[in-house]
């Protein structure tokens, strides 16, 4: 299901929302570096993400499995996966839902410094309109599963999925009521930086 929402209203929608920055990966495609801390335009990449996300949410958690002190220096609580072995974004979402202060959690990756300024508002409008459990951003025919707004109530279902060995986001989504929210007008905002070449292009 796809819901079309207006891009003209950039105000954050109620109710209160916790933002979750997913920085728990190993950055294999960039030479096994912590991508959130890689400099972009003179600042760590995660600083750009936080700058865009902070006005859209009520508080922020950072999911990181290494360099916790460096991430904590940005002034937000840092939480690590409870599942060992860099289990992927669902493990980060699971610990984020478990520690969130609010009933809704907005997730973004640490390597997408250009994320839309109206991301959370548009996801929230679709989630409320459709009464779904999860809203995910989409550009044209490409969903972006780590750009999502999730109800904290799905935590038991996610925990059970992970404990059963599940790791694939689309497999977990298949059992939920989800809505895909088009951002075709802001497709470039979902550009992420996975390689040193992409970093050079973004920095140029």
Measured distance between first and last alpha carbons: 38 Å
Share of β-strand residues: 15-25%
Q: What is the H level of CATH, i.e. the homologous superfamily? A: Spore Coat Polysaccharide Biosynthesis Protein SpsA, Chain A
Please provide the count of β strands: 9
How can the largest sheet be summarized? 7 strands, mixed
Name the overall outline. globular
User: How many distinct domains?
Assistant: 1
- Averaged pLDDT, please? 88
Task: Report the top-level CATH class.
Answer: Alpha Beta
Name the helix and strand elements from N-terminus to C-terminus, one letter apiece: EEEHEHEHEHEEHHEH
- Biggest β-sheet: strands ordered side by side in the sheet: 5-4-1-6-8-7-9
Poorly predicted tracts of residues: 1-13, 27-31
């Amino acid at each position: 299901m796809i819901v079309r929402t207006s891009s003209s209203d950039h105000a954050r929608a109620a109710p209160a929302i916790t933002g979750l920055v997913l920085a728990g990966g190993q950055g294999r495609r960039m030479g096994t570096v912590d991508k959130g801390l890689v400099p972009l335009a003179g600042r760590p990449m995660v600083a750009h993400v936080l700058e865009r996300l902070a006005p859209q949410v009520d508080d922020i958690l950072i999911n990181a499995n290494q360099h916790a002190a460096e991430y904590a220096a940005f002034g937000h609580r840092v939480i690590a996966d409870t599942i060992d072995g860099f289990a992927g974004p669902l493990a980060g979402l699971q610990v984020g839902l478990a520690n969130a202060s609010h009933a809704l959690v907005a997730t973004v990756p640490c390597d997408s410094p250009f994320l839309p300024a109206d991301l959370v508002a548009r996801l929230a409008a679709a989630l409320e309109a459709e009464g779904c459990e999860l809203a995910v951003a989409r550009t044209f025919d490409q969903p972006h599963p780590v750009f999502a707004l999730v109800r904290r109530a799905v935590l038991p279902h996610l925990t059970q999925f992970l404990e059963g060995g599940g790791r694939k986001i689309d497999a977990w989504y298949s059992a939920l009521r989800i809505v895909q929210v088009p951002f075709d007008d802001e497709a470039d905002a979902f550009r992420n930086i996975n390689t040193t070449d992409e970093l050079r292009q973004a920095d140029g």
